[in-house]
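Hey,
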Amino acid sequence: MRAITIAGVDFEYDPSDPPGFRSGRSRLGPLLDATRLGASVYELPPGQAVCPYHYEYGEEEWLVVLEGHPTVRHPGGSDRLAPLDTTCFPVGPDGAHAIRNDTDETVRILMFSNVAFPTATAYPDSGKVGIWIGERDEDLMARRADGVDYWDGETGEGADRTADAPNP
């Protein structure tokens, strides 16, 4: 059995994150060899958010406030949470959410979800959709407006070679 303490995790900050989205993250799943559930502790400095407003198509996400008072935007508006408050973001548009720190104190939250591949994430504010295959080179982020028709680029060549074959 592996055990870790959330109080002692190290946070990784991605220097390529844009202003407003500079939160630190500690992924717990890999530390515990987890494969079906994912969990991360996020550290949000004042004025920062975890990620843009979004909803998942394959994963139900949960949030537990560890420290501070994050603001959660959801389809019904926004709410400020307190330590040990817990909420769930269901699959689909009803589970849309964004978590940010609108206070002067650091916020720490625990987020966890089932792990699902392939899956998709919708970003309604920016009109994007992310497709997550589980292989970084196959993952895709695209604007909905750039979508193509199902048959785009298909020629039919080689699709039905029996149509050209002589009848016996």
